[in-house]
């Protein structure tokens, strides 16, 4: 049985871990600690009835962001997205279909990152009016028409990622992108 996109009659993650057996032993001691690690983030493409995109004005950076944020250690990205929506906006909702998986290269002090963008659905005016912004992180929530994304204070990579998410939502696809660009091979 499914509820939205979630299957409800499957074993729990803990059950799956138990059936996986004992954790694999390291044949080369310390090898797992030497593996690279990536940051993971999850966001939701949320729109209003007019198709405008919900963006957030954060207090901690000069550019706007999508609703969502960093996925915590050992947290499922989809559940991390739901947690962030609740924390940031007081919005209790399960993210829908995966729209974009985007690899973001190391830039400045930030490690490379995998960003997941889920379909956050459409909010009616009552839900928009009911958003409760997390004051320690957010100044404002804005609705921006897709045609106006290029003039909003967004990083170029987020503008590209948003455009890919909108197109994936409209086509019913899931896209893999590199820094918001489809089909691009990394050249580093």
UniProtKB/TrEMBL annotation:
* Keyword Magnesium attributed: yes
A Pfam family hit? NUDIX
Single GO molecular function: hydrolase activity
- Domain named Nudix hydrolase: residues: 36-168
Tagged with keyword Amino-acid biosynthesis:
no
**Where are the residues of the annotated region Disordered?**
169-188
**Gene3D superfamilies according to UniProt:** Nucleoside Triphosphate Pyrophosphohydrolase (3.90.79.10)
Q: Which cofactors are reported in the record for this sequence?
A: Mg(2+)
What keywords would UniProt list here? Hydrolase, Magnesium
PANTHER family, sorted = GDP-MANNOSE MANNOSYL HYDROLASE
The name under which this protein is listed is NUDIX hydrolase
């Amino acid at each position: 049985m499914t509820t939205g996109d979630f299957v409800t009659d499957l074993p729990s993650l803990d059950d799956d871990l138990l059936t996986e057996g004992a954790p694999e032993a390291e044949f080369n001691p310390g090898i797992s600690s030497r593996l690279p690690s990536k940051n993971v983030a999850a966001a939701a493409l949320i729109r209003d009835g007019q198709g405008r995109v919900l963006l957030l004005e954060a207090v901690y950076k000069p550019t706007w962001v999508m609703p969502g944020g960093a996925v915590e250690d050992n947290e499922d990205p989809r559940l991390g997205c739901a947690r962030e929506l609740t924390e940031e906006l007081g919005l209790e909702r399960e993210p829908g279909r995966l729209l974009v998986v985007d690899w973001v290269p190391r830039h400045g002090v930030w490690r490379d990152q995998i960003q997941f963008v889920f379909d956050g659905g459409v909010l009616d005016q009552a839900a928009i009016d009911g958003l409760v912004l997390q004051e320690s992180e957010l100044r404002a929530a804005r609705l921006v028409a897709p045609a106006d994304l290029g003039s909003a204070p967004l990083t170029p990579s987020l503008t590209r990622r948003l455009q890919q998410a909108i197109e994936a939502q409209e086509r019913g696809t899931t896209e893999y992108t590199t820094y918001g660009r489809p089909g691009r091979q990394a050249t580093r």
